[in-house]
Design a protein that fits this description.
Anthranilate synthase; alpha+beta; 21 strands; 417 residues; 26% helix; 37% strand; 21-stranded mixed beta sheet
């Protein structure tokens, strides 16, 4: 029996001014940071959506399927940069029990940039002739605006959930849980969603701006990056809003850097990542002290982790091992997940789940889907659900945690407006 395999060709091209101009306006597929990144062009070749199974996680199923596809692929990639060659974009659910899909999307064409080098990749089945898909930009559609209002979890309901979480923490059930709330709304049918991706990527250049299967956002938090056997991860936990002027800004950063509550919360998150990675790496190290990551609207405590990958492992394997981290679920993780299912009146879907890309060698860049919204085409309009959360530990104040979610919603709410 003759089986088809993938045929992949990457070639260097002349500089491209705007990668996003090549994306599908209605269903952009993009991964961008500081101008570098990859964007899908034209049709989708395949979408892999494994069903939920009791014996294996959907992420593990996707890792197995991807390994088999990559092993049989015929790849010509003289460029050899992150994102060149055979790549798939992915967005996975936060909770294995979610009703939403975890998906790997395989494009037919990709345009990429790394520094001053640009490339185009074509991907096809071996039995099919080279696609005659046009490799061309599409003009941006008109500007549009959307507004978001309270979703399933009202501001008052959120504070009540925080109080219930604090009772569980006081009872010793868990030491930290991350609780989210949602905002819902709609935008006009036919809106060019690339405008939102562009707004987020230019407004927040140090984040990963992403669009995968209707999930669009700008995440400051790397889950894991794998490049030529080196694993890096950035842990963020502990947050404070930026000040209105330079003095208030300095006071806010000093407060965060010396806050016992935030430093404890951060340490939980770092330890959770280190213990997850240990058995999958040969060498592993983390910086001694967290540093302050400065974003346009807030400060985070951040720690970088680096290691060497054990043989035969891929970025997808590590995604499965690391997710969910204490930074987006809590500690201990199983108790935190149970509390989230109880205390949040909605299914998170892919919010706070892994989002990113993987290549044939198992390299990839994966972030945690934060500062994001899921866009769903409906009748006459596109539905939008956005999410933001805060880490609840002993001593958390319900009103302060609500304010923290407001600060985290801001990038998306501003970009939608």
């Amino acid at each position: 029996m003759h089986t088809t395999h993938l045929v992949v060709e990457t070639r260097e091209i002349d500089p491209v001014e705007d990668l996003l101009a090549y994306a599908d306006p209605a269903r952009p597929l993009a991964w961008l940071r500081r101008g570098d990144g990859i964007v899908a062009v034209g049709e989708t070749l395949a979408e892999i959506r494994p069903p939920a199974r009791a014996d294996e996680s959907r992420t593990a199923t996707l890792a197995t399927v991807w390994r088999a596809m990559a092993a049989q692929a015929e790849i010509s990639d003289p460029v050899g940069l992150p994102g060149s060659g055979l790549v798939a974009f992915g967005a996975f659910t936060f909770d294995e029990a979610s009703d939403a899909d975890s998906v790997l999307v395989l494009p037919t064409q990709v345009v990429g940039r790394h520094g001053d080098r640009f490339w185009r990749t074509t991907i096809r089945h071996s039995g099919n002739p080279q696609s005659d898909d046009r490799f061309a930009t599409q003009p941006y559609g008109p500007h549009w605006a959307g507004t978001l209002g309270p979703g399933a979890q009202s501001p008052q309901g959120y504070q009540d959930s925080v109080r219930r979480a604090l009772t569980r923490i006081a009872d010793g059930e868990l030491s930290k849980v991350v609780l989210a709330r949602d905002l819902t709304g709609s935008i006009p049918a036919g809106s060019d969603l690339r405008r939102l991706v562009r707004e987020l990527s230019t407004g927040y250049p140090d984040t990963w701006a992403f669009a995968v299967d209707g999930l669009i956002g700008a995440s400051p938090e790397t889950l894991v990056t794998v490049h030529d056997g080196t694993v890096t991860a950035r842990v963020l936990a502990g947050t404070i809003g930026r000040g209105a002027d330079a003095d208030a800004d300095t006071a806010a950063s000093a407060h965060l850097a010396s806050s016992t509550k935030d430093l404890d919360e951060h340490q939980y998150a770092v330890q959770s990542v280190l213990s997850s990675l240990r058995s999958h790496t040969r060498v592993l190290a983390a910086s001694e002290q967290p540093f302050l990551l400065k974003l346009p609207n807030l400060f985070h405590l951040a720690t970088d982790v680096e290691g060497e990958l054990a043989d035969g492992e891929s970025a997808l394997d590590l995604v499965g091992v690391l997710h969910p981290t204490a930074a987006v679920a809590g500690t201990p993780t199983p108790s935190a997940i149970a509390a989230i299912r109880d205390l949040e009146p909605f299914d998170r879907g892919r919010y706070a789940g892994p989002v990113g890309w993987v290549d044939a060698a198992g390299n990839g860049e994966w972030a945690i889907a934060l500062r994001c919204a899921q866009f769903t085409a409906g009748r006459g309009e596109i539905g939008v659900t956005a999410y933001a959360g805060a880490g609840i530990v002993a001593g958390s104040d319900p009103e302060s945690e609500l304010l923290e979610t407001r600060v985290k919603f801001r990038p998306l709410v501003d970009a939608l407006a």
